[in-house]
Amino acid sequence: MGVRYFKELVKDIFYPKDYSCVFCRWPLEKEYLCIMCRDKLIEVNGEKHIKIENETLNVNYIFLYSGYAVELIQKLKYKSDFRVGEIFAEYICNFIKSKCLENIDYITYIPMHRIDERKRKYNQCKVISKYISDYYDIDMIDTLIKTKRTKDQIGLSKNQRFRNLENVFRVKENLDIKNKTILIIDDVCTTGSTLYYCKKELQKLDPKEIIILTVCAR
Ligand SMILES: [Zn+2]
Question: Phosphoribosyltransferase domain: from which residue to which, for each copy (predicted)?
Fold first, then answer.
């Protein structure tokens, strides 16, 4: 019996999980989403190419950000429903397998500002990353710090919003990712600005490759 299996077993005995669909509450076996509700998600498993400055940002994503996918993101983000984190991790792991992206050295995620994270008590991207890290036994590392709060972007033009994110993210000190393949996880990609700046920061440390994977994209 593997250590991981044993840990899972212990967890199940002491913290029995409520296996039912997060949407319709249909009882299930070891799952949180029933077939009917799964069908309502628009699964793309595609790649988006976003032109930013003079570069093209490649963003892999699982779902189209609409309908049920928006509801799932909200459950995880605002209602602390971590079962959704497991659902997303399951889709992401299947995507990683299908695209043969399995030579990843580290998993990381888009950080929140410490004040916002303290308020929410968790970072939803970190939650998803942790599940993937456990599943694949790949280390999850904190790589970036968000130095400014950027919530109030209302009233700014697309270009102003983009400029507003400049110098907001910073790589952590003493981070060694040289020649490593890094997977960055984000929940929703809209303009790609956040991912663009985060990738730029990580690139300063000469990684071999940075793969971007978001749960949803528009
Ligand atoms: Zn259901």
Answer: 164-218
